[in-house]
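Researcher: I'd like a candidate sequence for this fold, 195 residues long. If you have to choose between options at a position, lean toward the conservative one.
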């Protein structure tokens, strides 16, 4: 992410796939912290075998960095969810610029969005503002809502000093790493009841 001296806009760069190298501007906001290039590169290496054709959900989308990267790398669909009108407008503009027909924006809180019925997602990105205890409630709703496909993958990004809440017993830790002040983990949802 870089900040432009003109107009107070910030930029993110798509690092792989069909839009590799494209730079997209977004409106800066307090607490908005797009996932860094190095972390995204690691994450999408983890997802390389699963991303093509996947249905994705970018909760707490912010700049849309994770969902846009997913679409660039061959995901078929991504729902972008955020409460910020400016952020959702930016993502919608980027989808138009990139002619990305698989992206769908929803201005909503993550928890209100997850309380509604949806077709199942294959990959879910959970990267909320740090320190606000949003991971646990979001994961609870995902587990209870029949919205995860069999063997779905759930990515969770938190601050390094944050304790991960108790997750459903059938969410198996697949990969985990930290970088700077960020911890990030990928879980596989095993078949069986979400408990």
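Model: Candidate sequence:
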């Amino acid at each position: 992410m870089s900040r432009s001296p003109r107009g107070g806009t910030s930029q993110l760069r798509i690092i792989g796939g069909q839009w590799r190298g494209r730079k997209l501007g977004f409106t800066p906001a307090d607490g908005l912290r797009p996932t860094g290039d190095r972390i995204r590169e690691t994450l999408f290496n983890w997802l390389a075998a699963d991303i093509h054709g996947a249905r994705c959900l970018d909760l707490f989308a912010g700049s849309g960095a994770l969902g846009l990267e997913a679409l660039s790398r061959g995901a078929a669909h991504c729902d972008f969810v955020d409460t910020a009108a400016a952020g959702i407008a930016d993502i919608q503009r980027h989808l138009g610029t990139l002619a990305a027909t698989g992206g769908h924006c929803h201005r909503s809180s993550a928890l209100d969005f997850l309380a509604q019925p949806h077709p199942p997602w294959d990959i879910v990105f959970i990267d909320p503002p740090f320190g606000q205890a949003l991971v646990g409630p979001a994961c609870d709703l995902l587990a209870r809502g029949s919205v995860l496909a069999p063997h779905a993958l759930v990515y969770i990004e938190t601050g390094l000093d944050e304790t991960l809440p108790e997750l459903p017993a059938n969410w198996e830790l697949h990969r985990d790493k930290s970088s700077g002040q960020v911890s990030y983990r990928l879980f596989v949802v095993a078949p069986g009841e979400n408990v």
